[in-house]
Amino acid sequence: MIKFFLMVNKQGQTRLSKYYEHVDINKRILLETEVIKSCLSRSNEQCSFIEYKDFKLVYRQYAALFIVVGVNDAENEMAVYEFIHNFVEVLDEYFSQVSELDIMFNLDKVHIILDEMVLNGSIVETNRARILAPLLILDKMSES
Amino acid sequence: MSDIVEKTLTALPGLFLQNQPVGGAVAARAPFCSRLGSLVRGITALTSKHEEEKLIQQELSNLKVTVSAPTTTLKVMKECMVRLLYCEMLGYDASFGHIHAIKLAQQGNLLEKRVGYLAVSLFLHENHELLLLLVNTVVKDLQSTNLIEVCMALTVVSQIFPREMIPAVLPLIEDKLQHSKEIIRRKAVLALYKFLLIAPNQVQHIHIKFRKALCDRDVGVMAASLHIYYRMIKENAPAYKDLTGSFVTILKQVVGGKLPVDFNYHSVPAPWLQIQLLRILGLLGKDDQRTSELMYDVLDESLRRAELNHNVTYAILFECVHTVYSIYPKSELLEKAAKCIGKFVLSPKINLKYLGLKALTYVIQQDPTLALQHQMTIIECLDHPDPIIKREVKPQAYKSVNIFEDYMLVKEKHSITLPHAVLGTVLKASCMGVRVPPAVPHPGPVLGEYSYLLGKDTAEEVITKLYKLLLSDSVSSETKAWLFAAVTKLTSQAHSSNIVERLIQEFTVSLDTCMRQHAFELKHLLEDVELMRNLLPVDKSCEDMVVDASLSFLDGFVAEELSKGAAPYKPHHQRQEEKLSQEKVLNFEPYGLSFSSSGFAGRQSPAGVSLGSDISGNSAEMGLKETNSLKLEGVKKLWGKEGYLPKKENKTGDETEAPPNPQEAITMENVDQIVTKKDQSQVLTQSKEEKEKQLLASSLFVGLGSESSINLLGKADTASHKFRRKSKAKETKSRETTSAQDMPCSSLGSSSSVTYEEDYYLDNLQGRVDTDLEKFSLNSELLDSDTLKEHPLVEELSNCSLSTPSLFADSNMEVFHPPESIAASIDNEPSLASSLLEEATEHMYSDLTEVCNNETISVSAYKIWKDDCLLIVWSVSSKSGVDLENANLEIVPAENFKITEQPGCCLPEGEAESTKNFQYSVHMEKPCTEGNLSGFVNYQMMNTHSAQLEFSVNLSLLDFIRPLKISTEDFGKLWLSFANDVKQNVKMSESQAALSSALKTLQQKIRFHVVDVIGNEGLLACQLLPSIPCLLHFRVHADIVALWFRSSCSTLPDYLLYQCQKMIEES
Predict the structure, then answer these.
(1) Do A127 and B786 touch (CB under 8 A)?
(2) In 10 A of CB B109, how many CB atoms?
(3) pTM for the whole thing?
(4) ipTM score over 0.90, yes or no
(5) Cβ contacts (< 8 Å) between B783 and chain A: which residues?
(6) Which residues does the UniProt record annotate as the domain AP complex mu/sigma subunit (chain A) (predicted)?
(7) Distance CA B569, CA B622 (A)
(8) For chain A, which residues make up each domain, given as ranges?
(9) Whole-angstrom distance, CA of residue B632 vs CA of residue B682
């Protein structure tokens, strides 16, 4: 199960956070700080999976942005690792060449996309067209 | 790697400040985004926690006013919600806004409603009291005729919904299961999944409907129902055994590519769906033979299908291995799955290695012998810099034996003195008669080596205890050998001991030949105490000993034997080759042979025999032998065919010499132990580490079957070197992107590039309201470096090199594309370039290509691929009669390249006035796939004012690859001596005349020398200048080429593989 989904930049600033199990707001900040710290401490020779407390972190770096997913033991790390990339590909398609700023200015939309892909900590949709369909309709209807 | 983005982001605050007036305009044009925009701007400009607090508190107090103001429109409210999200995301309480989120969901329209729901799901938790207020809105939306609203309601229900209110929406959601739109059905299933999670009792009556969802005509709906089934089967597998057939059928269809293509991810059909199905099968087949039998076929197919070399295939493979080892075992499948793990653990990609190790834990739990093939990898990983890899490997090692602790002991032994406490524990463990695991040999020698630390007097005591252990039946003969070694060591420290005498007596008549040998050895050592002290010094295990590696003292013996008609010694590879040439055909894996056969599986195996036959003193060949047998270089050769070699020739009492000893026949398996024992007590420096690893490998699995105990020897070092590729690729990429951006081009001044950068940010500041806003044509190219493309991917290097030239499209610049030009120059007649330089005709060269120009001069360049270097000739010609006499050209030093000016031929005659040539030889110092060489030309204008023009040239690894002309025999030798190897299967684009076309491609485009072609296999060799060889063995099967590289350099095979793959796939 996916416990949380984070986007944090190299400076340790959270750009998106989504928790699939309730975490107290104060504890979130602490957790995010620790998570990004452990990601930054990794070298290229080390794998993208970190043991952290009672779960595992799967992370991927895109430019200065880290996407970190906290999962429990039952999860297939590589599947999550590739899921992150799938997510970025979806963002890339929606924003056409997504950048950190796109995410910052469209926090709500990024969340909407993520909601299509992950529910209750389970990966529920990976088909790009289907993930984007509801959001594209919303955009279209809001325009008119 | 992300320097650019970093730079731009840190520069952001500055940019914002500079654009203050523009920012105002933006705000006016897009009033809804302005507040959010300034918040985002504020956040990016933050430099301290304190500033953040100030900013957010200010924001919160503004928001408080806005959200409670009655005049606030829903549109503004939506924007406020996003701002509130930001505040909470940064850890500031914004609970005053929660109720407004619910209101927005209730009153808003479309996107506003969606954002309202989103905010609710992010702000509130499961048991939040405000949640009850949402129920009515959800009920209303579920009944809406607007599908989007229904979708939103279903989404929020599947995220967060009060348990006690489920009955209020359940009938509505059940209805949606029959909806005509797949998205509604899918979301309804997911909502029911949520209910199953929080209130399983409430959905019990609709289990039958889940089955309908499983059989839904839409893949998405079916996939959604799998979450429900996974959950339910986990709770109660027997109740769903009847569905096994359905899951198997579904998986078969998915694996067989029957799904619509948009479910593919990187051409792998619905990977996550496959994984989910495999998990379910794993649960169903657990401890149930009949159910498991239903799935063997599809699992077998899954293992076979996963040939595409993509991470996600490995994710599937991993899950498949997991399932195979979860269900009722089928030995054939278990073997296949275990073999499959090789793909993981041998991969240079660290993530795959991790996954492979994790998969190995499943294998070991089931059948440790199947993990034997991967033992060296396990040992290597114990030394891995990444703790998580170690962690993953540790339990496995534990599983079979407590090797990890022992390993640490041995390790410490070589670096620091063993702490008393540790020693005490070991001692206690061994002495208390704790059942010594059959394959934990190390405490013995550790004891022998270091027990003196406990005090002189205890040597006897320890011996006594060890003696008892030796007599105990519960100790395996392997351990006994170690214990005896310890006793031997201790005896040299003890003054006298009856026990030792008794021990010798007892064991000289032992049935175990190994123990008998030990006893004899000890006996003879005891006869010469002085020699024994020298041989087994106290605490000298870390020190080097002078060893006569050439075994010259045996020359006499060899001569004698030869004169008696003994066959001269042949090194291992020579025998191998003879064997090969007899067979006339290459094996499927010709070089794997040497590894598998060098284990102790066959007592007469070449490696084993070579131990004994080394006495012939053919020391010149020793280096080559290293790779396929135990490293014996420097180890005293005490053992021959007849057993212990008596020291006849030399009685000087030299420390390195062995004492006289009766000849005693021993079997080869003892050699292993004795060699390792010598290793402990007469340690030598060379490759100490490696030997330890091998030692560990053999001991780790000794309990499982000593047969293949030294499999995979000689590959010890491969893995750790390979991880470097990633970082290099990154470096290259970042360097390239930097140069792409920093390089001013002649027509587009640097000022213009600043302008469009600003534009880009403005664009963003407007929140991309005007998405249609025309961008600069260059803009998108530059954005490339800003976008979230993952950098480590080597594949994308190619994109990167493509984007560089297009940047200069306006200024008519062209950049080399080496592979193409090589090909071109082979075909083309060398008419154009031959006039330029004499030398050019002798070597291959590229076309003359203009690299930059302006109104006055033009710079062209071409490459000459000389045998010993890459020669680049820059030719500067003037357009408007500018005097080029004083022109000079400078090349900026590049990281991976060594550049030397070749003053040799500077000016071709007759063109002195208008053209000037500069010639540089370039060497690649560190292998890398691509690089960029930039420089500039300085020249004098008429008015004596000097000007500068910059240019750059792309270099490829292939510019530095030359054929390596060697014989098949040399190839064989080299192959065995190289430790770094990379294997990969590549699909060819056309299958007709496969071998010859592939060969031609590799020969022409990469400049491989074709050493030999046998059947459908080829041996090729090349070198990276100046002299790093790389060998390639390739084998064609249908339209698949199996490439297998080996080199003395750790990174070169990877790079070449990348290039070959590109070439073969393109051709």
Answers:
(1) no
(2) 15
(3) 0.51
(4) yes
(5) 97, 99
(6) 1-141
(7) 11
(8) 2-143
(9) 12
